[in-house]
Design brief:
The protein has about 130 residues and is an alpha+beta fold. About 45% of the residues lie in helices and about 15% in strands. A 3-stranded antiparallel β-sheet has the order 1-3-2. The longest helix is centred in the C-terminal third of the chain and has 18 residues. The chain is elongated, with a radius of gyration of 22 Å.
């Protein structure tokens, strides 16, 4: 994968690709193009549609020729627009991750805590090494 995509979340890489296609795309095509499970492609498309307000999409449903399975329809998606603020926000998050990865000194529990409180502090998520 190209270096420019390393810090980009999968859903945004997929949304960029679908928008560049400028046509209706199925989860099956996404799965094939990105070499992933069909189920993961479906879940990613669902995430884009329901959770990412900065990505403007259209969907349409077409009937499948399959018999004997639950839903007999296929959802197609087309990305119309991705808000540039999403890239800005993710760029800032990437910078924050870089800062978080830099070496830092571990916090020393304050001396006024009792033994149990010190253990709780050391065992908490905030004190764990990443």
């Amino acid at each position: 994968m190209c270096e420019e995509y390393v810090d980009k979340p999968l859903y945004l890489v997929i949304a960029d690709w679908v928008m560049s296609e400028n046509r209706w795309v199925s989860a099956k095509e996404i799965a094939k193009h990105f070499n992933m499970d069909h189920c993961k492609a479906i879940n990613t498309v669902s995430y884009i549609l329901s959770e990412v307000g900065e990505i403007c999409c259209e969907t349409k449903t077409i009937p499948n020729e399959l018999e004997g399975r639950g839903c007999q329809c296929q959802r197609l998606v087309r990305v119309k627009h991705i808000d540039p603020q999403l890239y800005v926000r993710l760029g800032q998050n990437a910078q924050e991750k870089t800062i978080a990865r830099s070496p830092r000194m571990t916090a020393v529990p304050p001396s006024e805590l009792n033994r149990e409180q010190k253990w709780q502090m050391m065992l908490s998520k905030s004190m764990r090494q990443r």
